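Appendix B: complex inputs.
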Amino acid sequence: MFMIKKDVPAEIINDHDIKQTDESDHRYSSLINLTRLENNRSAKVIEIQGGHQVVGKLEAMGIVPGATVVKKSASIMKGPIVIEKAGMQFAVGYPMAEKIIIEPLAWDDAAGHSPVKKIVLLGNPNVGKTLLFSRITGTGVVTANYAGTTIDLVTGKFNYGGRKYELIDAPGIYSLEHFSEADEIALKLVTDSDIIINVIDATNLERNLNLTLQLLQARKPMLVCLNFWDDTEHNGISIDVPALQKILDVPVVTVSALRKEGIAKLLEAIPKARISNLTYDAEEHWNQIGNIVNTVQKLEHRHHTVLERLSDFTLHPIGGIITALGVLLTTLVIVRFIGEGMINNLLDPFYTNIYAPLIMNLVGHIPSEFIQGLLVGYSTDPLESFGILTSGIYIALVQVFPYFISFYFVFGFLEDLGYLPRLAVVVDNFFHRFGLHGYSSIPVMLGLGCKVPALLSTRVLNSQREKILTIALIMMSAPCLPQTAMIVSLGMHYGVTTVLFIFIILLILALGINILINKKLPGKSEEFFTELPSYRMPSPSLMAVKLRVRIVEYFSEILPMITLGVLIMNILDYLKVIEFATNILKKPVELVMGLPPEIAPIMLMGFLRKDVSIALLAPLHLTAHQFIIGSIFLVLYTPCIASFFTMLKELGAKIALKIITLVFIVALAVTFMIHAIYILVF
Ligand SMILES: Nc1nc2c(ncn2[C@@H]2O[C@H](COP(=O)(O)OP(=O)(O)OP(=O)(O)O)[C@@H](O)[C@H]2O)c(=O)[nH]1
Ligand SMILES: [Mg+2]
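Resulting structure:
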């Protein structure tokens, strides 16, 4: 799980607030009675209501208008409330506490030391919580235009007004009832946090208020952030913010996380977060929401925009399929064009003409032959040498990296545009045949990049059954990006048909296995239900941030793994372990799959270095049919070490091992069959 911790003073946020007026803040009344003050917060006594006796008793203890008190705790069922005044503690009966009118002090004015306050961003999916989190903490994070981008908690720290805060970004939720694992993660925070910032999509007020009203009942200090404020105007929406604030009885701040507007206002409002007095009728709450929306929101008629027309087309039964095929094809063409362009015109020439001679020369000066071998290996071919500075760099930076960035560039665009949930609608019918619904297509698409985030993203699915089926599909339908890159770049020497054949076989196997698991698993597939966010033109700067986050991940996680793999191979080679293992596995590999014995060690270490195992086929000079068999086997026979552990965690050891064993058997059986057919035919 990744937890980001970062200290950035929020004062540095460049804020050009235009719409939120100070006037709305002044109208907000901050006087409450003592029972409504949250624990450990200070307040100034403003007035003591009630008769002479009440006033007198409190006065004797120094609790008079103007005094500062801290509420320490409250008993359940309207029991006494403990307060502290100048180091002394008093218990005040509930009816008496109701008569003490106070003004909560900003957290910074609080008497004594003030611990770090935990603030949680809660709201429906896709309302901009993560972008807001990034704007406040200054952390680069991945956001996308579909529900379920965030699946785990991300924590950051920031300072504002001399106080320290911890900010938590949670997965989106629609209500306080929980349906999925992501819901559960978010819900725990309602109790664990000190302050809730409820983020609302201002262009979808009615739907968002459902959660808001439920959260208000959690009796936690809360404030509401009306995000997407930049989008309200051209959607013909106007919202009377002071009126909404009055009804909800908590501060409401308008923000555009995209344009960085209103962030400072939001931070200023944090100390004013309070427990609302709004009464809520669970039975009638949609009526209540309707009334609120009618009171505060005005809609103007406007014409369909180009993006809305595009949305209609991409959801149309035929238009949708045309778009899906078009998008898939365009993605492949762009990824190949950018990837190959970078390799052929820039990286490979740079490596061959400048880097390799330089590094060979430098390493030549090192006296130890063993170290020389570790660094540059024993061959001048960068795919055969197993040197960390030659094979390691060549595979990681010249062969895989260009495909990695070009894939995430195109994928990031589709994510931000909002195309993925529409693709889910188009493929839903097809996916139903495998016991899945269309939403599983998003994790599957993610799996084309790297299996680990794809496996984690299955947490938004509602049932264990769906999770199992989706994970089986993720693991089998297509290799991860580094493997795909290597299959394409090595496979092209044998021709396009060879490459296509490999992918088609993998796809058929994946679908076959899913049909099988679907039949065996008890239960039925869930109904499909998802929100379709409006199409939005992706912002180049956000796309750049997201690409940067993924590139950093590549350099910090994938590149070291590739180097480690090359290093292991190098040492095994040096110690003659490869030779030994090769001798043992030689016959079985040759008999069952028709592959040369040198493939045995690649299989052995493929578990550790799966992403690069295909690349290691290069020195073996395989025939086309051997390359097909080798690639299919190496893609399927085991998940890489990272996905192996993620699977164990997500599904539990028993189910995960069952799937892994099943896929291994299939890999063995299918490669054997391809080999047998080849022998019979040729
Ligand atoms: N126009 C506009 N777009 C925004 C704003 N805030 C966020 N977005 C976009 O809305 C999409 C969703 O943003 P996220 O931050 O991923 O939303 P989230 O609430 O974290 O979503 P989940 O993690 O899925 O619950 C992204 O494409 C953002 O770029 C905003 O104020 N205005
Ligand atoms: Mg998010």
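Residues 7-15+115-299 form a domain with the Rossmann fold fold (CATH 3.40.50.300).
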